[in-house]
Each structure stands twice: as C-alpha cells, then as structure tokens.
Design goal:
The protein is mostly helical. It has helices spanning about 10-15, 20-45, 50-60, 65-75, 80-95, 100-105, 110-115, 120-140, 150-155, 160-185, 190-195, 200-230. Residues about 1-5 have low confidence and may be disordered.
Length: about 230
C-alpha cells in the first residue's frame, strides 16, 4: 500500500519517527489503525459480496477485524444472500490463512517453540499426525478468542498440504458462519454480540458437536474396514 494513500498526517508522523523512533512508532501504529477502521474498512465494505471476502482474507492474514459483527450486518441487510456471504467469507479466510501457513512452512518451528513450550509443541505435532484436517477445521469453527492462527501456523510447520489446509479452513468457517447466519436471521444483527459474550459456551457446544461428528466418522470407518475384511 503506497504511503501517499494514508494521508499527510501519517506521512508527517513517519518522518518525525525517523528522528525519534521510541514513542513515534506507537503513534504511527495508532494512526494507521485509525485510518484502517475509519477509511479503508468502510470503503472495502461497500464492495458488497467481494468486500466480505476481502475483509475475511485480511482478517486471517494480517489485520484482525470483528468479522462476526461485520458479517452479521451484511446478512441482516440482505437476508436472501446469506449463503453467498458465508461462502465468500470462508473462501477469503482460507486464502488469507495462506500467509501464516506459508510463514510456518518456511521454517517456523523455532518461532513456534518460542511461543509455546515443548510439551504443547509435541501435543500439537501429534494432533496433526493423527488427524490434520480436524486439527485445522475445529479451530476454524471457533469464535475469538480461540488461538486460530496458532493452528494455522502449526499446519505450515508440520507440512500439511495446501489444498487440504484450505478445505479445512473453508469447512470450519462455513460451519461457524452458517450458525451465525441462523442466529442473525432469527435474532437480528445483535446475534454477533451474543456470540462474543458467550464465546466459551459456544466453543464448548461446537467442540461437543465436532467430537460427536468425529466419533460417528470413526465408527463408520471401522465398520467399513470390517466389511472389507469379510
């Protein structure tokens, strides 16, 4: 993004920061975030369906945004298009997740070990070795403050293939945002606040559903294995 697009105030502050880098960097960050929230984000939001995908990609890759609240407003204002919003937001999230995934793939093991201890690192490795698809899909279903980027970064570190990674993110996000859509259509755009305030409860519910789904898949797989042996 050319700095000429962010306004003279930010440029002047940047020039002063070259002389006083201490507090100026913090002020520059605050100015940039204000520009993002007040100017860039509303401009992207006007792009409609494509704007949803772009915002989701930015949220997953670099700049965190209240994606549930933004998507809830889109769905409420155009209820008949809720499925398209969910699809494009999920696709954007899968594409945006390629950035932290790529950083992990490029050699992020040491970086990851600085953020988590060795025991947790080995638990994460074991989870990916056993069922890498669910290791990414389930965190993708969960609302904040679930550490989604940790698992996305881990997917790169443990060399999960790109296509299964994107499909796992897409599937998890679709489940999350279809649930949000159902709540918004029933309760209104305030459903996003309910998701935020009851995140722990929703996480437990989604985890429970995921565990039931995994148990069903495992039982079905074992039955198919027995039939093949017979």
């Amino acid at each position: 993004m050319p700095l000429s697009l962010v306004g003279p105030g930010v440029l002047q502050l940047r020039n002063r920061c070259s002389r006083r880098e201490g507090t100026c960097l913090k002020q520059l960050f605050v100015r940039l975030m204000a520009w993002w929230k007040l100017i860039a984000l509303p401009a992207i939001a006007k792009l409609g369906l494509w704007g949803v995908g772009l915002i989701a990609a930015l949220d997953s890759s670099t700049i965190p945004v209240p994606m549930d609240a933004i998507l809830a407003v889109y769905i409420w204002n155009n209820k008949s298009q809720f499925l398209y919003y969910c699809i494009l937001a999920s696709l954007g999230s899968a594409i945006g997740g390629l950035l932290p995934y790529g950083l992990g793939r490029a050699g992020g093991e040491l970086f990851l070990l600085k953020r988590i201890n060795r025991d947790r690192f080995e638990q994460l490795r074991l989870r990916f070795e056993r069922q890498e698809f669910l290791a990414v899909m389930i965190p993708s279903m969960l609302p904040p403050p679930a550490p989604w980027k940790l698992f996305v970064f881990g997917a790169g570190v443990f060399e999960m293939r790109v296509l299964p990674f994107m499909l796992a993110v897409f599937a998890g996000r679709m489940v999350r945002w279809l649930i949000l859509s159902a709540l918004v259509l029933e309760l209104g755009p305030g459903a996003a606040d309910m998701v935020a305030h009851h995140a722990v409860l929703l996480v437990l519910i989604i985890l429970g559903l995921a565990m039931l789904g995994f148990a069903w898949w495992l039982i079905r797989r074992k039955k198919q294995g027995r039939l093949l042996q017979e």
